[in-house]
Design brief:
The protein has 243 residues and is an alpha/beta fold. The chain folds into 2 domains: 103 residues, HUPs (Rossmann fold, 3-Layer(aba) Sandwich); 112 residues, P-loop containing nucleotide triphosphate hydrolases (Rossmann fold). It is built from 8 helices and 5 strands. It has a 3-stranded parallel β-sheet with strand order 3-5-4, with helices on both faces. The longest helix has 28 residues. The radius of gyration is 26 Å and the shape is extended. It starts with 10 loop residues before the first helix and ends in a 6-residue tail after the last strand.
């Protein structure tokens, strides 16, 4: 539930920074750095552990670790509590403690790195990929950029267009999933189709293998249209842009 998980540093980088910190504190220190695949990690299974360092807000988590250890037939750990450092510069909507979530929030709107120059891409229009889950604000941002003059490509609308009778993917989808996905008027019932593919990775891949290449082709056509209109910036709004 971390705020802005997309701005959390990669595991390898965090490990490198932790190792640098430990070596700076005490070069002779022996330690293991392990990834945590669950809330407890090795704390509830390692018989060699003796102490767990907790903060005032994670003390209850330490107590939960000891309960798990007792269930596993292991001795309790000594809980050593440290006090949290306060952030004198925190804003009203930020946590009072020094917090990585607050630090990441402050990065919003900051250019993390300059756009890479790719000589194989045309200079115009400059294409911006806008992605994120449902309710993340893509549509609002796209409208704002549209008001500023950007050419907007809505991948969801293109997705609807390819399903209509005569659309580029209509015949393939009907052939793959059967006439039972059709309404009486011959249009594809997206709810029936959705029930067939969601929860079934093989069926979902069959659908995306048909649909996504067609959407990509239509996106390229739209980018060409933006160029023909003399637009300097083109924004592609797509929930599964990276996929």
């Amino acid at each position: 539930d971390k705020v802005l998980p997309e701005l959390i540093e990669p595991y390898e980088l965090r490990v490198a920074k932790l190792r640098e910190f430990l070596e700076d504190v005490k070069p002779s220190l022996h330690y293991d750095i392990v990834p945590l695949a669950d809330p407890f990690g090795p704390s509830v299974t390692d018989p060699n552990l003796q102490c767990l360092v907790v903060s005032e807000e994670t003390h209850r988590g330490g107590e939960a670790v000891n309960r798990k250890r007792l269930e596993n037939g292991l001795p309790e750990l000594a809980l050593h509590e440290i006090q949290l450092m306060k952030d004198p510069d925190h804003s009203q909507n930020e946590e009072e403690k020094i917090s990585s979530s607050s630090l990441r929030q402050r990065l919003l709107g900051t250019l993390l790195q300059a756009p890479r120059h790719n000589p194989t891409l045309p200079a115009r229009p400059y294409v911006i990929g806008l992605t994120g889950g449902t309710g993340s604000g893509k549509t609002s941002i796209a409208k704002l950029l549209g008001h500023l003059g950007a050419f907007i490509i809505d991948a969801d609308k293109l997705g609807h267009a390819i399903y209509v009778p005569g659309g580029p993917a209509y015949e393939q989808v009907v052939a793959a999933f059967g006439a039972e996905i059709l309404n009486e008027d011959g249009t594809i019932n997206r709810k029936v189709l959705g029930a067939k593919v969601f929860g079934n990775q093989e069926q979902l891949k069959s659908l995306t293998d048909i649909v996504w290449p067609e959407i990509a082709r239509m996106v390229r056509e739209q980018i060409q249209e933006a160029d023909a209109q003399g637009k300097a910036v083109c924004v592609l709004d797509a929930a599964v842009l990276l996929e």
